[in-house]
Amino acid sequence: MSSCNRATNPHFKNRDSVPYHSLSKEETLQHLNSSASGGLTSAEAQKRLKTYGPNQLECAQKKSLLLRFFSQFTDFMIIILIAAAVISFVVSLLEGHADYVDPSIIFAIILLNAILGVLQEAKAEKSLEALKKMSAPNAFVLREGRQFSIPSKDLVPGDIIFLETGYFVPADARLLDSANLKIDESSLTGESHPVEKNCDCILAADTMLGDRNNLVPATGIVTYGRGKAVVTATGMNTEVGNIAKMILEDVTPDTPLQKRLAQTGKILGIAALFICIIIFILGTTQGRPVFDMFMTSVSLAVAAIPEGLPAIVTIMLSLGVQRMVKKNAVIRKLPAVETLGSATVICSDKTGTLTQNRMTVTALSSSTQFETPNSDFATFLLSLATLCNDSVVQIKDKKLSVMGEPTETALAMAAYDLGINKTKLDLTSKRIFEIPFDSTRKRMTTVHKNPYLTSYLSLEETMDCISITKGAPDILINKCSYYCENGTIKKLTSTIIHTITQLNLTMTQDALRVIAIAFKPLKVSAGTPKNWGNDLESSLVFVGLVGMIDPPRPEVKDAVFTCKRAGIKPVMITGDHISTACAIGKELHIISNNSQAISGQELNSMSDEELKNTIHKFGVFARVSPEHKVRIVKAFQNNGEIVAMTGDGVNDAPALKCADIGCAMGITGTDVAKNAADMILTDDNFATIVSAVSEGRGIYDNIRKSIHFLLSSNIGEIITIFIAILFGLQAPLVAVQLLWVNLVTDSLPAISLGMEPVEKDIMKRKPISPSKGIFSDGLFLKIIIEGMLIGSLSLLAYVTGIAVLSERSLSLGRTMCFSVLSLSQLFHSFNMRSEHSLFTIGLFSNKQLLFSFLLGTALQISVVTCLPLAAIFKVIPLTIQQWFIVFALSSLPVLLVEFQKKVIK
């Protein structure tokens, strides 16, 4: 019995504090008070079921739908919007015409946001439902000395269960017997290959989850062999149950956009109330009618709040979602689009995301040197490897399909690339005997007759049959007495053995999985298969080594470079061994040396504070558990980073939920991972995340442009009213005109700005710091200056109408002011498109904005020229001369901002 030194570790955690992997089979049975030959009695099983509860996952207590719905209305911005809707309706009612349109739109926006919020709260519940679906529906159990098939929910600690190929593992268990048992634990541990199990091994207490080869975890799948085990944990006490707890306990953080919009909402709400009070006090102290000043100040306060902003943001995010679907990224949560643009760290799984999830032969060697893949030797070596191989090769519609164990499929595909068809080879060199692969022996042997491939060899005697053995190099080399060089069989010497060992070492240092191939010439007269026995695996002829790895995706290297240039740290988190992870990490330039990689065992020895202080040193985290992934994500977040996390397995779900944005794999991803994620990658490709980051940055840019446009326009309205009242002039605008400008003229261009294409240099910029507000980098000053410009132009039009033109009158001044205020904002929307000149990016490249401009202009002209509408909005028709003045003043913002861009450049 193999055994490792037992050790205790202060950082070791187990939900019942018993590290069963460090106990012998007998100790485990004794601790669980069970019998390997008889199992539990029915009475004892019922007693334990009452103690431990059913073997199923729990859900959090659900809030009522009504409570979840009303909890969406506690946001400060939402409260302000409700107040705006009520005030808007009251103002219109007092003005003598009940306006239902404006408040209806506002309430529709609020309702839409509430519905979206309720839908998102169901995410954790869906994750747990998916976990439940992964549980085995039935289990084969030994009770009172007899085998039963029972619902897996009735299993209890101490039950003896049986495992067969294709079965789900129904609960965490300690192996008692195993025969070539392999378990696929990838969804739980991230290990990319089925794990060989050994019931006799006793391990150290601090052994990582992925290395506990004497345990089988719930939700694992038996891919090979069979076994017998005693249940050690059920339900929420299993490893997958611990993941369920983390999903329930971890709260998805607010996105940067949600935080910024909440802050903006508070600022705007307080500013609106302040403006309302100041304007009202200023007007009444000048002796103006109290009712008129109340109307004006309230209308201005409503105008100061861009109540369409949540709708505009939602529309922009939705448009971004549609664009990202075309780039293989499906967004499950709208704010996640913008969060991607703020990402500073991308934590990615290795297998299938950074790599191709397909073992591929990358190195071949003879006994003396590395060989090229197109040589006669390579054809001979891979022909042998393909014959001693249980994979199945199929070609349908000229497409190759290989099914089987990953190592064997890699050998068959490498042979196919050299023109060796396994199906045809199996027919010409028929297998007549075999010794199957055994995890203890670490090799397999097959015997074939009529081996035409022996034409490569120079043999003194005719060979009727050939036995082929493939397996671990360290095992196989001890079974060899000869080696093959250029088709000639020679005596194996210590020098050649040393050379083979060095070739094997070179491959393993490159993180390759290495398989050795040997053969033995046979004559039928030497005996029959029944009495060949162990003689088949002695005095073998060593042929060569085959090295293979799951290679990186070809496009990922460029994507990693783009990340680094964009100020984003790419990080690999994997369940694979550290040597494999380092090799891939260095090839992709995620790390430059092995000191930048750390294993899960090393993480166990670090406190959360130590991890937080050293987290930026590492780019690769290997052999990690679900708890480690959450710790890694939180350590980055505690340093102020915005973390995107990718994953496909159950083990990734807590980290996906904890991250600022979780990205699940669409092809290989489990339902648990998908339901816990904010985004699903339909091609399982790291490069898609980088493309999505670019899109997210573009969306944030566009949201910022819209806010810039809306607020500079609104400040223009405030300046117009405030300055006029300050200088004792009649109010240049009435309430209905303010509401028109705020609702119609502002909204269409703001939405169209959301359709602005992503700027070409966007991935050359650093990520937006989450500590920065929307008004950072001088945006607030720009908004004030541009608002003053729009306000000044509107006041200039007003003064021209009441004092300069020969037809001067209050109605003319208000009409010209109203028209300039509307049209100047429409012109100003073109300034928002880019920091670059309009002539650089193309004046007509955003057709939606052009359409909004033309439609807004047409509506504004209609309001002034159509007499019934003019009566409602208290304006008068303008002459051609007056329209010329209006358009000349309105277009000035474009000319002045273009001049400013030119100066800055």
Automatic annotation (TrEMBL):
Domain of life: Bacteria
Domain Cation-transporting P-type ATPase N-terminal, residue spans: 19-93
SMART domains: Cation_ATPase_N
Cellular compartment(s): Cell membrane
Catalytic activity, as annotated: Ca(2+)(in) + ATP + H2O = Ca(2+)(out) + ADP + phosphate + H(+)
Membrane topology category: Multi-pass membrane protein
One GO cellular component term: plasma membrane
Predominant cellular place of this UniProt entry's protein: membrane
Enzyme class: translocase
GO biological process: export from cell
Key words of the record: ATP-binding, Calcium, Calcium transport, Cell membrane, Ion transport, Membrane, Metal-binding, Nucleotide-binding, Translocase, Transmembrane, Transmembrane helix, Transport
Catalytic activity, EC: 7.2.2.10
Pfam families referenced in this protein's UniProt entry, alphabetically: Cation_ATPase (PF13246), Cation_ATPase_C (PF00689), Cation_ATPase_N (PF00690), E1-E2_ATPase (PF00122)
Xref: InterPro entries: ATPase_P-typ_cation-transptr_C (IPR006068), ATPase_P-typ_cation-transptr_N (IPR004014), ATPase_P-typ_cyto_dom_N (IPR023299), ATPase_P-typ_P_site (IPR018303), ATPase_P-typ_TM_dom_sf (IPR023298), ATPase_P-typ_transduc_dom_A_sf (IPR008250), ATPase_P-type_domA (IPR059000), Cation_transp_ATPase_P-type (IPR050510)
GO molecular function: ATP binding; ATP hydrolysis activity; metal ion binding; P-type calcium transporter activity
Membrane-spanning residues: 73-94, 100-119, 267-286, 298-319, 707-727, 779-805, 849-873, 879-899
Protein family: Belongs to the cation transport ATPase (P-type) (TC 3.A.3) family. Type IIA subfamily.
Official protein name in the record: P-type Ca(2+) transporter
